Amino acid sequence: MRNVIYGLTLAMLAAARLAGGAPPEAPVRLLQGRDLFALQVVTDPQIRPDGTVVAYVRTGYDIMTDRPRSSIWLVDVASGAQTPLVSGSGSHSSLSWSPDGKRLAYVSSENGRAQLYLRWISTGETAQLTDLTDSPANLAWAPDGRSIAFTLFTPDEKSKLGDAPAKPEGATWAAPLEVITDVTYRTDAAGYLKPGYTHAFVVSAEGGAPRQLSFGAFNEGGPLSWSADGHFLIMSGNRDENWRREPLHTELYQVALADSAMSALTKGTGPHDAPAASPDGRQIAYLGFEDHLLSYQDSHLYVMARNGGAAHVLGESLDRSIESARWAHDSKSLYIEYVDKAVTTVARVALDGSIQPLARGLSGAELDRPYTGGEFSVAANGAVAYTGGSAERPSELWVAYQGRSRQLTHLNDNLFADKTLGRVQSLAVQSSFDQKPIDAWLVMPPNFEPTKKYPLILEIHGGPFASYGALFSTDDQLYAAAGYVVAFANPRGSTSYGEAFAGLIHHDYPSHDYDDLMSVVDAAIARGFVDPERLYVTGGSGGGVLTAWIVGRNDRFRAAATQKPVINWTSEVLTTDAYTFMPKYWFAKAPWEDPESYWKYSPLSLVGCVSTPTLVIVGDQDFRTPASDAEQYYQALQLRQVPTALVKVPGASHGGLAARPSQSAAKASAILAWFDRYGKKAAMIDATGEGGRPPSARSSAQVCGARALTP
């Protein structure tokens, strides 16, 4: 009987194979959407104070739930040997070593709600320290290792207006009214907010009830820092009377552990954030700038005396925005992170302002597009642990020490061993507007042949105050695998090239960033392998704005895909979660005070000129550039009978449009299908130009109507 069953099983398997087609005879060499589930990234690298071990969070993706999964690993710096520390269900984050390096604190939701846990490294024992109703964040050990501070959301009563009639027992009624009175009542990441405030707490490292340290109808933020004597906790917050309408005006405060007495350490226009008390107890470093109501300002590193007073800028000559700062163990210098011409760098800045770069090539955890970023930590001996990546690999764990950098993890080597990726190369560009140099790159199709001519996708970053770099991008690699050359760039307004370069679009966006991007396309065509009759354009957020602006200015692109765009600045400002910021900093006036400027910079003002088939993509939970803007553009295109389609990504916020692998892959596939529909699949032609079609009657310099000539 057993043999009969075995024979039937083999027959069924054979039939299944026949029904499903022949199995592959070789690896699939090109990157595919399904491969996104196999990617892994390193985040939150925390080096032990003695520099011998690094703890990090390893993030991968569960193909059955379509969500990220995380685990905590230890890496021996000398040998590179890895040890899993915390895995299983739930998420794990916010790693923090005790001052003696014997314990690791972290936040985990392995048992449901996110709680603070402590791991004893030598014994492997783990204890849950808290039983909180919300997730703790911004962990900070006291200098003596006996306490851990953190921030926590504390609920408040909901607003009420009038009274509903009494509900009869057992009745089924509609949900009660929701009354909203707060200025900030929703954010893109969190959606509609529960009423309440974020405050600082402290808990014993041996467990017990956490104690609230800060109070009132205000919010405090991290990172938190302890005074060297352990008597005070230092944090940032905004306790001005009008704080709800002044989102940037944060100051530094200290709260006494003994009695929760709070006092301000800085006074200015802000923002003043990210305090870090020096180990010797004499100084406090922090990040920020004095607010001049500009749409972009670099964040500077300040140092002041421990008890407040006049602060001075450290490393003022750098002209780059400082992303984070940490004191050296001897209090004689600080380690800082900044992005310099699209390369994220860790450097040491001495108290005299001199700067010494230590590690370059950091990268962040964002996978879909090549944004600059990264994280780092520093040991007492000066060893720096950081996340580093390249155009071919997502973020891995690296350590820099005594002038040498070493890669400690290789999480994606197996995935890419059988893959041929698109090669990334730099592209020299000068803007046609004023001949400014513009950093740009090309992603070449795998197995690129220079005698062929390829279609090109111009892919534009968001922000607009952000920067791309020569870093790994699933979107760009999927486009390249489909046979496209992909161009991406940092036009004016991009960060990492100095405050003046970013400020070129202050109260003037979109404007000559358009010229920069058209110059990128022209430079790519001049290389000889791009077919000028098969050009396509896409971008997200600020890149979505520019995509819609471009197709309103010219018809040189066969098709476009504008992702999570702003289309109408008036409706955007009045529906975005950043509505207290945008009118004041990006326009100087409210929409009803200067409707002409809002309309002048709205891509909707050019929709009458659009003839390019344009796909519109947005997350249905986007509260930064809400779906209503995307829908305006879709309906306007429909009214004009321009070929269009609206793609909504269910459950996706603005920042989370590509957070789930299935949606990220499907979005890229939808864009490729749209572009393929409009000419990409035309036969590849060689460099002689045979097989091409006549050039369009309208040159790239021409635009639609007098309105479009002046941005």
Count of DSSP H/I helices: 11
Roughly what percent helix?
10-25%
Task: Determine Rg (CA atoms, Å).
Answer: 27 Å
Beta content comes to 25-35%
Say how many strands there are. 39
Report the major sheet. 9 strands, mixed
Distance between the termini: 81 Å
Shape: globular
Could you walk me through the main structural features you see in this protein, from its secondary elements to its overall organization?
It is built from eleven helices and 39 strands. By secondary structure, the chain is α+β, with helices and mostly antiparallel strands. Strands 31, 32, 33, 34, 35, 36, 37, 38 and 39 form a nine-stranded mixed β-sheet that branches. A four-stranded antiparallel β-sheet has the order 1-2-3-4, with no helix packed on it. The chain has a four-stranded antiparallel β-sheet with strand order 5-6-7-8, with no helix packed on it. β24 (333-340) and β25 form a beta hairpin.
Task: Give a short overview.
This protein is α+β, with helices and mostly antiparallel strands and 711 residues long.
